Amino acid sequence: VANEGGKHWTVNEVRALIHIWSDKNIQQQLEGAVRNKRIFEEVAARLQKFGIDRDWKQCRTKYKNLKHEYKSVKSAQDSGNTSKSMKFFNELDAILGHCTIEQASKSDNDESERPPEWTEAKSEKDSIG
After folding, report:
1. Is the distance from CB of 26 to CB of 39 less than 8 angstroms?
2. Which pLDDT does position 5 carry in this prediction?
3. Are the CB atoms for 55 and 5 separated by under 8 Å?
4. Distance, CA of 77 to CA of 91 (rounded, Å)
5. 11-21 vs 24-32: helix axis angle to the nearest 10?
6. Of the ranges 13-17, 26-30, 82-86, 103-107, which one carries the lowest mean pLDDT score?
7. Domain ranges of the chain
8. Most buried pick, 20, 94, 106, 128, via CB within 10 A?
């Protein structure tokens, strides 16, 4: 996957980004924001504290890409396709799974009712160290 603004994100960089993104304060800001440059400047500043040098645009692009990939995996799984997965699905599901995403195609769907086979299936794939 070509990455806007240079080098690819390492697993640790993505983990750090998701860790910051999982902050309730950041989530609330992102949910209500249309213009979110300021929020991603804060995210980039927090990444700096982990020694990760990314600008706000790179953070926003990675955030959008992760969110897009998550939504496509989630909708595939919701329609019964369990072969589709992604590296940080469980982490993202913890952040995005509980809330109705503004652009979600099935926003009127009850997100809390997940098929039981899904709960077991996702833990096996995510045991990557």
Report:
1. yes
2. 52
3. yes
4. 16
5. 80
6. 103-107
7. 11-97
8. 20
Q: Which two tokens stand for residue 69?
A: 């990939």
Does the pLDDT at position 126 exceed 90?
no
| Per-residue tokens: 59 | 């953070």
Contact 88, 14 (CB under 8 A): yes
CB count within 10 Å of CB 101 equals: 16
User: Is the pLDDT confidence value at 3 over 80?
Assistant: no
Q: Are 107 and 71 in contact (CB under 8 A)?
A: no
DSSP the chain: ---TTSSPPPHHHHHHHHHHHTSHHHHHHHHH-SS-HHHHHHHHHHHHHTT----HHHHHHHHHHHHHHHHHHHHHHHTT--S---TTHHHHHHHHSSS--TT-TTTTS-TT---HHHHHHHHHHT---
Write down the pLDDT at residue 109: 37
User: From residue 107, how far is each of 71, 98, 112 by CA, in Å?
Assistant: 12, 12, 12
- The amino acid that residue 123 corresponds to is S
**Pairwise CA distance, residues 64 & 58, whole Å:** 10
